[in-house]
């Protein structure tokens, strides 16, 4: 059976005239290039190169005889690959995206609008739920990509890739607690105030509970809510002190209805990351969407 990879290595070495340069172009090690050449020479029963002080030269009775044919064959194969690639460059079908309502609102909404303008033929199926549910949807092939609040437990059936947003959890209060504005507080001071937290089945709640536990502080929330929006409303109305990623509260922080408490020590930063099924292929539609989320430095 013809091993096309060996012929690609042969062609690259012949064109570069160097094992080192060929290895760099092929993104493999120099010993791997050398081994591939030896394997092909053994298969063909003839030396393909003369090793000289100037590099690798095609041998008269081997390499020169086959080089033109190999170049033509690889050119034809590359043409086939290019045509297939062109077929994949049209984003169609349905893109199933799993994320929490907040991630859709604060991380993905603008990108969804931008994507629709670029690829109007793609339909979206937006599956809004908490990160543990999104993970199950990925594992059961009910969504193509998930966006998760980290950290999440390791799972062999999914792979976590890029982080798309950094989250800094902060404590917030409304005008009912105006005496706390600008005042430096310790985490132990928070025991004196009613606290408004997310429900216990969320990644954000696990993070804040872990933060208090690591410092030996025992607190119980006065109110548990199921969304950041509801938390912000209750805190604005004076129900208590909330804990929320600063990125999700910026609008109300800027208009003065909420303010950030200066609590020491600060909570560790978290992030929102991309999650994919472990062994699933990636369509052009999905790859194009993920490319939109990359920073200019990553593209």
Cα radius of gyration in angstroms = 28 Å
**Beta-strand segment tally:** 14
Give the class from helix and strand content and strand pairing.
alpha/beta
What are the secondary-structure elements, in order, as H or E?
HHHEEHEHEHEEEEEHEHEHEEEH
Oligomer: single chain
The helix content is: 40-55%
The strand order across the widest sheet is 4-3-5-14-6
Mean of pLDDT: 88
Number of helices: 10
The low-pLDDT segments are none
Summarize the structure.
The protein has helices at 4-16, 19-26, 30-44, 63-88, 101-118, 131-139, 203-214, 228-236, 246-255, 284-292, and strands at residues 49-52, 55-58, 94-99, 123-128, 145-149, 158-167, 169-173, 184-186, 195-198, 223-225, 241-245, 259-260, 262-264, 270-277. It has a 5-stranded mixed beta sheet with strand order 4-3-5-14-6, sandwiched between helices. Strands 10-9-11-7-12 form a 5-stranded mixed beta sheet, sandwiched between helices. It has a two-stranded antiparallel ribbon with strand order 1-2.
Write the layout of secondary structure elements.
Blueprint: H1 4-16, H2 19-26, H3 30-44, E1 49-52, E2 55-58, H4 63-88, E3 94-99, H5 101-118, E4 123-128, H6 131-139, E5 145-149, E6 158-167, E7 169-173, E8 184-186, E9 195-198, H7 203-214, E10 223-225, H8 228-236, E11 241-245, H9 246-255, E12 259-260, E13 262-264, E14 270-277, H10 284-292
Helix pairs in contact: 1-2, 1-3, 1-4, 2-3
């Amino acid at each position: 059976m013809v091993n096309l990879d060996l012929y690609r290595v042969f062609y690259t070495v012949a064109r570069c005239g160097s094992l080192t340069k060929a290895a760099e172009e092929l993104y493999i090690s120099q010993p791997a290039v050398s081994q591939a050449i030896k394997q092909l020479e053994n298969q063909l029963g003839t030396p393909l190169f003369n090793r000289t002080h100037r590099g690798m030269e095609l041998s008269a009775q081997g390499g020169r005889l086959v080089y033109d044919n190999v170049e033509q064959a690889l050119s034809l194969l590359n043409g086939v690959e290019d045509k297939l690639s062109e077929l994949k460059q049209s984003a169609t079908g349905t893109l199933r995206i799993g994320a929490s309502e907040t991630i859709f609102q604060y991380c993905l909404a603008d990108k969804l609008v931008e994507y629709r303008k670029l690829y109007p033929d793609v339909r979206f199926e937006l599956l809004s739920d908490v990160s543990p549910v999104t993970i199950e949807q990925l594992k059961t092939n009910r969504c193509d990509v998930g966006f998760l609040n980290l950290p999440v437990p390791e799972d062999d059936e999914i792979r976590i890739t890029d982080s798309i947003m950094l989250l800094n959890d902060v404590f917030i209060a409304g005008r009912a607690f105006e005496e706390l504005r600008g005042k430096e507080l310790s985490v132990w001071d928070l025991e004196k105030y009613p606290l408004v937290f997310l429900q216990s089945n969320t990644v954000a709640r696990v993070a804040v509970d872990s933060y208090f536990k690591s410092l030996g502080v025992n607190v119980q929330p006065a109110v548990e809510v199921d969304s950041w929006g509801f938390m912000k409303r209750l805190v604005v109305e004076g129900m208590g002190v909330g804990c929320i990623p600063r990125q999700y509260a910026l609008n109300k922080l800027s208009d003065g209805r909420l303010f950030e408490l200066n609590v020491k020590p600060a909570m560790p930063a978290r992030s929102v990351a991309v999650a994919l099924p472990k062994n699933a292929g990636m369509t052009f539609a999905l790859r194009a969407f993920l490319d939109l989320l990359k920073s200019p430095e990553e593209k």
